[in-house]
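Rather than argue in generalities, we have chosen a single entry, letters for residues, whole numbers for local backbone shapes, without further comment.
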Amino acid sequence: MIDLQNRHVVVVGGSRGIGAAAAKMAATAGANVSVVFRSNEAAAEAVVAEIRAAGRKGQAYAADASLDAPLQDAMDRAAQALGPIKGLVVSAGIFEGAPIDEMTVEFWDRTMAMNLRSTFLSIKCALSSMREAGNASVVVYTSTAGQRGSAVYSAYAASKAAQIMFMRSMAKELAPHIRVNCIAPSWTESDMSDPSLTALGRAEVVKSFPLGRIGLPDDVAGATVYLLSDLAAFVTGSTVTVDGGADMRG
């Protein structure tokens, strides 16, 4: 069984979707969990309530992960409340599309800020506490779009590809005391993906999955708690694809 007993895990973007699932699963594995959220306090507190119902400590902190000072303050308060940060999950981000001839500079910059800058700042702001904890683990949520590209979602795909290269750079820079890995989900049921899934037609999307269904947040959360645990003690600089076989190549 995966054991995160008494470890402090911070989930940035933990109020909904995959991040919320990871926060709750980490708690069931024994972790105390801090949830960093941007705007939906009620959703974040609902996640914290489930963490506490699992018998673990939980706290919620409001911060825009694309802004340095608010995120640093949230990390500092989380570490003061629940101890040095042993695990960091970076789930903050947006999923928006636009064809290149309609894409504005503002659209591009917003995508890069929310998806890529938030990754950089999450690691930077947690770094001192993770070094204090020792043998810490970072899990960054990228996407299969960052591995293969995606028409109309080019800004999103570019931000996700950059996350992978940043992760690999951090894995080298922060070794041996901090491991850094990515998880690349494909289509996963969440409020963020729901509009696009509806527009494309779920039945058509499901046809692309050899396992016969769209991913669930818990599918990604399971890989997350593995990477946070000592079972993955020799895993760093890797991208774990969680996609039901949808992007098999060969």
Remarks:
- The CA atoms of residues 79 and 185 lie 29 Å apart.
- The mean pLDDT is 94.
